[in-house]
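Supplementary Text 2. Reproducibility record for the structural model of the 71-residue chain.

All settings were left at their defaults, and a single model was retained for analysis rather than an ensemble. We include the record here because the model underlies the residue-level annotations in Supplementary Table 4.
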Amino acid sequence: MNVFRLLETAPLAHVAPLLEMEAKEAAEALRQQGLSVVDEEQTIGDIARSNGRQVPEILGVFQATGPEPSP
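Retained model, structure tokens:
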């Protein structure tokens, strides 16, 4: 199974810590980009499908809004 498939089937609450974010913070980051998120237990794939997007697009939001890199 590839990484995108694993991320697609994982709830946002499980993916957020991998992004060094709290689940509520991750949901808010998506909402700030105009995406609909029901709750933190919604899977990344469900978020993508319900917003007419692809999984990489959803994950790309976190690349743009993620934590600052350590020096």
